[in-house]
Amino acid sequence: MRESNVYCEITPHDAPWEAVRGLNPKGVIMSGGPASVYEAGAPMAPSWVYESGLPTLGICYGMQVMAHQLGGRVAPSAKKEYGHAALTHAADGEPLFEGLPASMPVWMSHGDRIVEPPAGFVGLAHSENSPIAAMGNGRGMLGIQFHPEVAHTPDGRAILDNFVHGVCGCGRSWTPANFIADTVSAIREQVGDGKVICALSGGVDSAVAAALVHRAVGDQLTCIFVDNGLMRREEPERVVEAFDRHMGLNLARVNAAESFLGALAGVTDPEEKRRRIGRVFIEVFDAQAARLGRVDFLAQGTLYPDVIESETTDSKASAKIKTHHNVGGLPEDMRLQLVEPLRYLFKDEAREVGLELGLPEEMVYRQPFPGPGLAIRVIGEVTLERLETLRAADWIVMDEIKSAGLYRELWQSFAVLTDTRSVGVAGDFRTYGSVVAVRAVTSDEAMTADWSRLPYDTLARISSRIVNEAPGVNRVVYDITSKPPGTIEWE
Ligand code: XMP
Questions:
Q1: Cα end-to-end span (Å), the chain
Q2: Which atom of ligand 1 is nearest to the CA of 486?
Q3: What is the C-alpha separation between 290 and 200, in angstroms, rounded?
Q4: Catalytic: which of 81, 149, 349, 491?
Q5: ∠ CA(119), CA(104), CA(5), 5° rounding?
Q6: pLDDT tens digits, 132-175
Q7: Which listed residue (68, 110, 147, 214) is catalytic?
């Protein structure tokens, strides 16, 4: 929806009307899901969906729920339909299929199907296994059995466009420029003449949040950049360059590499590394913040997926895999209010806003980088020397991936310095050196990931450069583990 320049929010299936009324919705989409309407406890739509008169599009399970709740019949299909299917619609004048060919490829993934639409509804399309692959009641209630939101439904975007613009009558007002204008005035209103601090990490989220707040309140914002000595080569300089020299924002850079390395001395356990890094971060950040005198607000780059996750995560269901540290806690006595201008944005939208605000592309499209930095990519003890070796290897991976034009299509690509040593030969001499692992993955939101089938030539160049240029490394291996069962990072 957002890509169609329409603002949308995600609410749980049982959200009461009071929770959505204030949003003044122009339409509703009921998403797909793994349940079957006949299972005990299957999620159902609240009655306001059917009583409000709002245009509603049910997708897959959403359509089945609509059929079930309105008195139609849903039943398991003899043949489940997964994958490509040909959809044929004979619904001339149906706004949902406006401008689309009578037959088109779509992506299906369902076990149940509609066998009888509810009273007042007619079938609008069919596929080989779904006699009712789309239905409607002529008054804005629509259902589709296929998934318009996936790339395998090439016309899916046009169908969603038809729904929001044609059926719901939404305009195209959700654009980066409008977002910036609205957000800047909202920040001004919230902050008044208060003082704001923001921790810059070098990542896109905190960068865009800082740039927005700066646009809104200028010098009332001070950014703190804690250089933990665990970043990649040239990275701290680029952060300073972009914000200090380029944007003229108040930036306090704290060089705390020694404190972090000191706290990490002798530590090999990954979780202990994270705990110590988190603790030192808070100490350094707090000390710096305390020097600013009275501060009222803390700006953070929280994105919408984080908000959804924290609102919907059932603690019983989500096992802790790793502790993630971004911005640590806050000084107890500061009681800062949060300014979270990206709370309703997805990552790709935050990027567009960043570009519109004039942030460098390199920062806006930076691959995700973990808060604890290279410390969790140096397996075993983190020392300055081992960090330097990893920095050299990481630089080469980055350089080759960028030259091959692959940087943006990979979720992450990096080197890991393992704690394994192996025998090699250089000239006529035996060597006993370090093993570097190269990791490159594709992913959408990091919950799952696949190892990238990098071209052999790229791998060959990465390998030969690393053994030649990274001190003490005599072997390079490529990590071919997906997530799950592996995680993206090694620690
Ligand atoms: P894993 O290794 O759990 O990583 O598959 C998923 C994503 O999270 C990043 N990551 C972190 N990010 N603090 C962060 O800010 C952390 O402690 C941390 N650990 C992992 C990782 O780079 C990947 O994008």
A1: 36
A2: 5
A3: 17
A4: 149
A5: 80
A6: 999 999 999 999 999 999 888 999 999 999 999 999 999 999 99
A7: 147
